[in-house]
């Protein structure tokens, strides 16, 4: 977002009185943000490309909507790194300094917000899909498939692009010395609502329902054999852990930026208070870290993902024949075990339909 730029000054702001300029807060971090964002870009961009290739192989192999949503999340993270870190911060601030026209600054700002919205809201349909898979497995078999997931992803990205347009008028918090006006209030509250409060509310509600359903299912399975319980718990635990890790890391890393933006709005200005300036710099650095950590979360949780990443790094080809989708494998299993018709066994099979391919 353009408000990250400590050195880029629109032309109308360059004419501010020198007395006001002397009261402007200094960036106490110096060149540390430039070094940090350069390292983050050099690590995060290749890692996200590797993640995208691995997820595309898993999508072709399993035909699961889950990997389509994860691909959308990774693609949005790549766009965020491209527009926010590379174009917005490194090029505009560290290379061109004040030579960037105002119209270009504002256009890049709108693209930065759109990329951020797409990165965060790509996780929402993933959370909804996992909730439906666990709580409504029969419905999940009917509505969750890659083609539908791609349409949902396309709609989310289109809405994210549209939502970035109003932020063409986003103020540079480092440089604007006037108190926030009506437009600033509206844009800041729209920003924190779209980027943090609304998606976190969805994550909190759906993840809570998922955890409650898992606990209830574990209590119902107490009469089954120990081996079945361990197998089912392992399958459910891995996929749930991946989802909870993604959403929890986002909530933690973006909380400081949200708090500092609201503090700037109501208490003290980033422009005049060096402590708020420092907090804003650090909060932005933490928020951008979210675009590079998902690869390591996937590797930690999923053995299948680690195996595919190893194949990609060793330049091994994908299997010639993709695996059958999970619901097809389960349908054949149901046909051979039609005599098992008790309610407990039906519930167990439905759980496997939704979660046996993390």
Automatic annotation (TrEMBL):
InterPro entries: GPCR_Rhodpsn, GPCR_Rhodpsn_7TM, Orphan_GPCR1. It is found in: Cell membrane. Gene3D superfamilies: Rhodopsin 7-helix transmembrane proteins. GO terms for cellular component: plasma membrane. It comes from the Eukaryota. GO terms for molecular function: G protein-coupled receptor activity. Residues 331-344 have a biased composition (Low complexity). It is a multi-pass membrane protein. Residues 47-298 form the G-protein coupled receptors family 1 profile domain. Keywords: Cell membrane, G-protein coupled receptor, Membrane, Receptor, Transducer, Transmembrane, Transmembrane helix. Coiled coil: none annotated. Residues 1-21, 325-347 are annotated as: Disordered. The chain crosses the membrane at residues 34-55, 67-91, 149-169, 189-212, 241-266, 278-301. PANTHER family: G-PROTEIN COUPLED RECEPTOR 142-RELATED, G_PROTEIN_RECEP_F1_2 DOMAIN-CONTAINING PROTEIN. This is G-protein coupled receptors family 1 profile domain-containing protein. It comes from Ameiurus melas.
